[in-house]
Specification:
Structural class: alpha+beta
Distance between the termini: 56 Å
Order of helices and strands: HHEEEEHE
Shape: globular
Number of strands: 5
Radius of gyration: 18 Å
Number of helices: 3
Strand content: 25-35%
Length: 107
């Protein structure tokens, strides 16, 4: 009986875990960001592109798929964080990387 309680608690605790970077469906619907092909937009403005896709095996032996986005027209760190959350929600099973190489006025 004691083992059953421990298992039930473990299941309950893991099922309650949330990803603080995932947006709710309501937040996704209100998001100004969208993806069209390899292009990332904020409204009608192109702000970046998917520039590479990588597949790697990490030190734990897990295969990890990564999308790299290069931003072209975004300047505020809060906007970048909002975009990162949008991309993570859109591709929850992928590692997401944002390159700021082309951004001159990043704050």
């Amino acid at each position: 009986m004691k083992n059953l309680i421990v298992i039930a608690l473990a299941v309950l605790l893991t099922s309650c875990a949330t990803d603080k970077y995932l947006l709710s469906s309501e937040e996704m619907n209100k998001s100004p960001f969208s993806i069209e092909g390899h292009t990332v937009k904020k409204g009608n403005e192109v702000i970046g592109r998917i520039t590479s896709t990588e597949i790697e095996i990490d030190s734990k032996g897990n295969m990890v798929k990564e999308f790299s986005f290069t931003l072209e027209n975004i300047g505020k760190s809060a906007e970048t964080e909002a975009l990162l959350k949008f991309l993570h929600t859109k591709f929850p099973n992928k590692k997401i990387e944002i390159n700021l190489d082309g951004v001159l006025d990043y704050e």
